[in-house]
Amino acid sequence: MNPLTGASQPGNTKDRIMLRKPATLAAPMIFVAAMAFAHGDTAPRAVDTTGLPDLPEEMATENPWRGAEGDLLFKAVEIGGKGFNSNCARCHGLEAISGGLAPDLRYLEANEFGDEWYLDRVLHGYEQNGAVKMPPFQDILSQEAVWAIRTYIETRPDADEMAERNSDITALRDRVKALPATASAEEVEAVAADLDKTGDEFETLSGAPRSVSALQQAAHLLRTGASHAPMATELISGLLRN
């Protein structure tokens, strides 16, 4: 069955959504239809990509930031998250966790085949029986924004696994909260290292090299100074609320 259209005849490569766990998606849960709801009464919005390096004019065929590390990775996830929330989350859910109406994009495989399908839909949109189900974003999103959103989606961790570790995450949050603004670099690094260690234990659902959750983001923020402990605490608290 074509996972995009629900038809029994196979479509072409671009019509097949590359999912790591296809059995979790029912036929109605299709990206293009979901995006129609996501944009039903909200115009597509451009995304501010300040802080990301410029990419070549020609659109890449694979995510150029899939192997990114450090500042670049966290900036791509931050900007991608904002772009996702303003254009996609209404249907696909916060943190890209679908509530059932739309497909769970966290399962879209982080490889060239998943990228090809993603680009085709994002850039060109989708029409069915003459009706626009998803508007094209080619003239709205810059290449940097397109790949930042892709990076955000594919680095989402398994939320169910994280929920099972709520007590551990709460303990880490409390350690961050207890850090004084005068904490030494060694004290800060000890907490940040434990945040990274725990965060890295959660795999992505897309097969991407690593996940990026509020834990790693909080660690990255802490390393810029102990005075950012309150902001890091709020990041982790948001994870617990979710």
From TrEMBL:
<keyword id="KW-0732">Signal</keyword>
<keyword id="KW-0349">Heme</keyword>
<feature type="domain" description="Cytochrome c">
    <location>
        <begin position="75"/>
        <end position="157"/>
    </location>
</feature>
<dbReference type="InterPro" id="IPR036909">
    <property type="entry name" value="Cyt_c-like_dom_sf"/>
</dbReference>
<dbReference type="GO" id="GO:0046872">
    <property type="term" value="F:metal ion binding"/>
</dbReference>
<dbReference type="Pfam" id="PF13442">
    <property type="entry name" value="Cytochrome_CBB3"/>
</dbReference>
<dbReference type="InterPro" id="IPR030991">
    <property type="entry name" value="c550_proteobact"/>
</dbReference>
<protein>
    <submittedName>
        <fullName>Cytochrome c-550 PedF</fullName>
    </submittedName>
</protein>
<keyword id="KW-0408">Iron</keyword>
<feature type="signal peptide">
    <location>
        <begin position="1"/>
        <end position="38"/>
    </location>
</feature>
<dbReference type="GO" id="GO:0020037">
    <property type="term" value="F:heme binding"/>
</dbReference>
<dbReference type="GO" id="GO:0009055">
    <property type="term" value="F:electron transfer activity"/>
</dbReference>
<dbReference type="InterPro" id="IPR009056">
    <property type="entry name" value="Cyt_c-like_dom"/>
</dbReference>
<keyword id="KW-0479">Metal-binding</keyword>
